[in-house]
Design a protein that fits this description.
The complex is a heterodimer of chains A (about 425) and B (about 1200). Chain A is globular, with a radius of gyration of 24 Å. Chain A has 14 helices and 14 strands. In chain A, helix 10 packs antiparallel against helix 14. Chain A has about 425 residues and is α/β, with parallel strands linked by helices. In chain B, helix 16 packs antiparallel against helix 17. Classes of the chains: A alpha/beta (about 425), B alpha+beta (about 1200).
Amino acid sequence: MLQLAGITVSLLLGIAADPEPAGSSVFQLKDGDRVVFVGNTLIERAAQYGLIETLLTLTHPDAKITFRNLGYSGDTVWAESRAGFDTPTEGFARLKESVNAARPTLIFVGYGGNEAFAGRAGLPRFVVGIQRLLDVLSATGARVVLLSPIRHEDLGRPLPDPVPHNRNLRIYANTMRNIAKQRACGWIELDPVLSVRAIAQPSVPLTENGMHLNAYGYWRAAEVIARSDPTALPNWRVTLAADGRVVETSGTQIRDASHAGEMLKWIALDKTLPSLPNPHAALLSYRSGPPQRELKVTGLNPGNYRLKIDDQVCCTATANQWNKGVAITAGPEFAATEQLRQAILQKNKLFFYRWRPQNTTYLFGFRKHEQGNNAAEVVQFDPLIAQSEKEIVGLRRPVEHRYELSKQSEVSR
Amino acid sequence: MNSPASSRFRTRFARTSPSGFRHAATESVLRGSRRISAVSLAVLIVFHVAPTFAQRDLKDIPKPDPKRELSELQLADGFEISLYASDPAIASPIQMNFDPQGRLWIASSSTYPHITPGHKADDKVLLLEDRDGDGVAERSTVFSRGLLIPTGIAPGDGGVYVANSTELIFLSDTDDDGVADRRRVVLSGFGTEDTHHILHTLRWGPDGMLYFNQSIYIHSHLETPWGVRRLNGGGVWQFRPESLELNVFVRGFVNPWGHAFDRWGQSFETDGAGGQGINYLLPGASYVTAVGATRFLSGLNPGSPKYCGAEIVDGRQLPDDWQGNILTADFRANRVCRFVLSDDGAGFAAQQMPDLVGSSNVAFRPVDIKQGPDGAIYIADWYNPIIQHGEVDFRDPRRDHVHGRIWRITRTDHPLVERPKLVSVSTSELLDRLKSPESWTRQQAKRVLRERGDEILPALTRWTLALDPAESGYEHHRLEALWTYQSLDIVEPALLESLLVAGDPRVRAAAVRVVKYWHPRLDNPLELLARAVDDDHPRVRLEAVRTLAVIQEPQSMEIALEALDRPVDQFLDYALWLTARELKRSWLPALEKGQFNLALNPEHLEFALRAVDSPAVVDPLLKLVAEGRIPPERQEAVLSLVASLGNAEQLASVLALVLDKDAPSDVQQRARLLNALVKAARTRGVQPSGDRHMVVELLSSDEPSLTAAAARAIGAWKLEDSRDALSRMALDGSLDLSLRRAAIDGLTWLGGSDARDTLVQLCQNDQDLDIRKLAVEHLTTLDIEVAARQAVDWLADAKTANPTNVVTAFLQRKGGPEALVEALSEKTLPADIVKLALRAVRSTARDHRALEEALARSGGLGSPATPPTAEEVKQLVSDVLARGDPSRGQQVFRRDDLACLKCHAIAGSGGRVGPDLSSIGASAQIDYLVESLLVPGKAVKEGYHSMIVETDEGRIVTGIPVRRDDQELVLRDAEDHETTIPTDSIEEESMGGSMMPVGLVESLTHAELVDLIRFLSVLGKPGDFAVANQPMVRTWRVLMASKENEHALRHGSFQMTATASASLSWRPAYSLVSGELPIDDLPRIKSRGDVPVIVAVQFKLVVSTPGKFALGFNMPDGLSLWVDGEPVAVAERVVLELQRGRHVVTLVVDVERRGDVALVCRLLAIPESPARVQRIGGK
């Protein structure tokens, strides 16, 4: 045990030193992908935050990628939560059926957290269970990516001391990683997400209760997952000279740059929408790497310059600051991302009504002779979901924005 | 001011005067059957005058005007009612709870029962405020919206917990604008298989924990940082929000929507689809429907209607005799009921009192009841003419999604309680509120104290120390302090220990329960519990026994068993049984290793061993038997357990006792043990090891039951050598039928062509009809085709015999129905036999169309009726309203040929195959009743779905599941018989539909059908067909007018009916809805020319706490009375004092002296008497 704990600690330290590992080829999203998430509460609640899905959507604005979240609270690799009135065997059959019905090309699998409560004694059974699950998922022909269970965060008493559970989680995660390797599945280690907290001051919780991610936790998880795709999100960098000359761009295309007096104008069409800002940016003293959007303007006359995007004030900085580069963290692009997220949430809600309808006893179960006629309504969610996805397609594509950087007069200040 | 007729119930229009007092005014109306007939007349006229508008009028939908609804509310004497809040501010309130500020939070759903595609789920949390205290909520706020069918609400922890379908969420307002801006999922994974079963009934306990319920169809899988918690089926959860510890408090129930705590922390549950009234919640108990349970605790009022909501009321606003009463709503019958709770040994009894409020308005749906900060009683009125969504279409246009009311009931001319300030006051003032006479104030003060957190500890310590022992309520104040510590999770051993020895047993019981949560942090929990197990009060002992279950040590079991040294009632017995099972992983291994205290009192050890269904107990039990440490009166029970669990060697020692003629056990006991061994062979395939042939000798025993058991053992153990002996016995016409039946059983189990030939011989028409019937039934397991041919011959000859069992034998076999169809071709059978056979076929909830047609053809009957068209339903509904007569309908309902009462009870009296119909009229619209009778499978009440099971022997059994566990499944069939099926033998199971036979009402004339539906449609509504709250005898048995009975009485006296009742033949009889047993319907016995014509009836009572009580008779003339065979003088009021247990009361009615006055027998309580007595209902 001691030895194991030692390994855990060194692993965590190793990761903590490099909290955002460079992108590896764990998976690649491509046009036409149907991404299916299957797992326990970690997966189920992800649909209510929409952060992972939003990030994966906006990083591929031109690819038609759709998502189905089949997470189920309290679930395990044996699909215990899906049994309903029936036996676990039928629950597992139901999981298989719902995954197949979603016609996946890429499946993210989020299990292990609940199973780990059984400790070392439960491991052999878990291995058989997850292999059986992966057999079924692989049979769909989809690429399969395993997510590690997240570390149990210590939020103090009276919540439980997570040390024993974490010890088990590590054992289960290592086992899962080995299985992923053997089966040539993708493997994403979510543990670094929580390790970061250890070096953040003041510490910001990543979970609601130690085991379920909060908005910040999902935001971090989204980053880790998205960065596992090498094709994901280019950094947005623009350098302009005060005379309107475009010195450098990445992540966006600039046209019609011009200057008049102390005012610089241009039109930009980004490659992707920006990712959502860190919900706890203000609370964190450490820098989580370089900013995702940075604008440099060289050669400005001294003074304060204000940036407007589509007539909306975004930020104000001195000529000196603009010369060094200013991080852009708000504006219409960010609003567009939030709009996209809202559309995704709406779609997820509609899909939840579709695949987890209430009153199943009457609609499909042993009382369907009473209200089975109303099961026809459940199918009516399909066109609504399709409509919602059409909306998402429109929202994920960046549109042109007008940028205007102008010197603030003393008066206007 | 009030008309004489309204002495008990009256309606008041309460107006609020500027002074804040209510003036009762205007009219008083008594509603009853007169009004109903007036309505019918009006409909009749409308129907004839304007048939095109008839449909609208046929729907029983009152105008949703609150004034009109108010005018229809009938109130208990001394109370008045007013409108606190109404639509449009609120719609469809489902649960409500007050916060410490006195504001009322409401969970409201217009989406219920099911979201419509394209509609946004926009259900709300509403906040109502009566700022000026005039009894009207002048302010309502939408605190949160966009919810999906929120069914529970509990303000607390700076926000509000809301049950939101799959989730328990916490909503809070962080910027103080009165609207929630933060939403956190606290728990997720609650099942939503049925939206009126989902997470509901949130209630804070006095211990600072949040309790919530789920119902029968729900399967929940909840992740907590302590592990996953799962609950399949109904139950009550117990939750600590700050630590997220979550446990199942009790499990079971059908749809429990009421949970209330009394002043001492004991809790009570009501069930919106159950029939047992108030349920006392014994921690960890299983109630009806609990999945996997083998033993259940039943409610305190069997035969009650379904109740929703529960509130225990008290305080200065209410009369003395209302203190601690529990209120609950019979929402189907549009009324709020009151029960007095009292001690019944370790548990409780609940006695129903007159209603608090009732209404003739079918849309008045009281679903939640809460006492408010002013001591008034608030009622959430869901306001809907339609309840349920299983039976009535989700989209039925009559569903109301927009109305809803909160009513407020106060005592006339009695000052209200001053609304306490709790949030703005100092901690020491707040602590003083824990002395309040109002539970509302104490509970809310504890909530505020808990939210203030550890900072209150110094003040709490000071306050507790400063309490004056001379002050009245001193111990209760200290209990409140203990609960406050508990809710802060601060362990205070000194206070706890002092309360464990408090003078008031209720305080001691509450303190013992706290040990359950603190034990890991106490020095001496087992010592404390050992003392409590030996307490003078049974409830303290019960709490100790249940608390010991959480300390997993063999010693806990030893201590718990000490409870057996004092009297043990049903509650304590159940508690100890639960604890023995829950602790078995500690004490059983210890026992096997010899570490468990085997020197224990054998009675103790035996109890523990018998409680656990583990083969590990068999050897220790046999050892006790061998050592002669089991007293003779319990030996049989012990050995039966050995037989049901033991292996071959262990069964051999039971067989040795059966064969031992010199054994201390009597010969009938030996027969029963042998039967247990037969069962072990038949259900588990385990036979005693060694030589079993000795059993053959028992065939010549003088005791018929032993001979019969031996015959069966020969078959079960396949003792081929004795086949001929069984054949001879089966064919021997001189033998008693029971012996021949046993031989036939044995022979059938031996099987083979010899057995078949013997059975065929027994089917020939020179044999007795009963034997032929038996032989046919048995043949179905040996050769289905041969059996079918013999069956048809038997049916042709059967005359008045009941063919149900024969037909069922075929229905229970694969290929059986087909074989019967084949054998029926070209045959002609008597029409009456065919009618009965058809009824049996149609009660299986399976499709046997070919067999139905073949039977109908053979009996010359028409083909089965087709389901009615919508037009026909409409026509029937209008005929019912126009011409139906409920009194005549009741006679139709009671007819023997319809056999309604064989399956359905009214007020708990009648069969249990279908739902109790006590309030069917108040809950169901007429079209639903029409369809239920004509198309029984269309809508089936939860808990009444049949299950179809196929076993590995090719048997097919249909029935309503009664219980199931790892070992066996028990199904109740249409005959109310229970069949036990070993789980291992189940090959396939599926859900079936209704057990109610199709075409049951085909034999009725149109007029009779119309009357029957009319009766059902008023059953339970205020008026002549409402079931009275007072306990009355409703299930009787009546002496049949058979020759044998008359012969027996001729040579004895009438007293024989009481002293030798087992030797006479009786049949069930039931009272009318009114409680009257009509004498002129019953069989009359004329035993001799010189004695009067009599009717003899019996009923049973069960006494749970002995004491004085009385039987009240409407008219004692012409009655003679015996209790347990002893004559008792009859009077209008007969005072009795009986021992704990069951008792039989016999009445002989001298018909000439009495005339045809119906018989009414009430159970009357005697003030101050501890007696707890219940009538026995059922069939």
